[in-house]
Fold this sequence. Notes:
Blueprint: E1 7-11, H1 16-26, E2 35-40, H2 43-54, H3 60-65, E3 72-76, H4 82-89, E4 94-97, H5 104-109, H6 111-132, E5 138-144, H7 153-171, E6 176-182, E7 184-185, H8 192-201, E8 206-208, E9 214-218, H9 220-233, E10 239-242, E11 246-248, H10 249-257, E12 264-266, E13 278-280, H11 282-285, E14 288-291, E15 294-297, H12 302-305, E16 318-319, H13 327-336, H14 344-353
Parallel strand pairs: 1-2, 1-4, 2-3, 4-5, 5-6, 6-10, 7-9, 8-12
Antiparallel strand pairs: 9-11, 10-15, 13-16, 14-15
Helix pairs in contact: 1-9, 4-6, 6-7, 8-10, 10-13
Amino acid sequence: MILQDKSVLVTGGTGSMGKVLVRRLLSGELGTPRKVIVLSRDEAKQHDMRMAYLHKTVSTDEVIFNNFRQALEFRIGDVRDYRDVCSAVRDADVVINAAALKQVPTCEYFPEQAVLTNCVGAMNIVQAIRENGYDVDTVVGISTDKAAKPVNVMGMTKAVQERIFTSANVLNPDTRFICVRYGNVLASRGSVIPLFHDQIARGGPVTVTVPEMTRFLLSLEQAVDTVFAALRGARAGDVLVPAAPAATVENIARALIGDRDIDIRVTGIRPGEKMHEIMVSDEESHHTVRHGAYYAIRSMLPELAGDAHLERVLNREFSSADNVLSLQDTEALLARHHLLVGQERAGEAGEMLA
């Protein structure tokens, strides 16, 4: 059990994916950690998350003042601040970097802010370990399909983050730096499905950018599965990618609308968006291997690449335009994850329990 009695630091741990990740870590699925530390900037989100875990068993004051005695510990801080990062990383055996600016239009308008969080934050983690000799076993960087052939600032900064982490293995051989890359996480904060739910509740219209646009779809649980698969078996420098399904934006909207009399309005592509996302680029496909239910993109650096004669498992890029789900299959996928309108409350309740 690779996390048994280990201290795990999750940056950005109060986000949608972070909350599910923390819940799964505390479940003992990979062994019972000695401590799970959440480092983030938002005290209100930390307070809500703390209460969701603990308010039924202890008083509010006890929860707050015993913060550092709990298995789940909250720290206010920012990955942009080297001192905050050092303070948290020094106590960690494993670091999972989920802190990010991830909204595509926001990053287009404020690219310098995306650089500070997505790139400088990663640099601070690497620098903290290297310069202070912290005994960190593994660092996992959370990336995105938009990092493959990036055309927007969010993808560009995440692509740089991947390289910051994977290249760190060369000068930090005692720490394994790995990344995971996946597509749109169903019902995560700021994603399209909560927007569609709100628009349907108001009677429409449901706004679709371009009907033929496709996106990879994963649940929050599958996103965490990818992180755990990387922790279990990724090699230093690997970027692990799930073999995820994809659907058109129009079919996602139609599946959620069902038989309701609600219009769909096409609004046009937003700044920085792609028509189709790429999980593995054509250039990366030459050094990509199969890793169970995942693809593992090996580092291009010769010090990390290992066997130069890999059996090629992809003959071209892995795009969301490949093997697109039908409307019926899209409905089935959303129903399986309790995301059809009328089911979303169950999903919200499950996330709160996380």
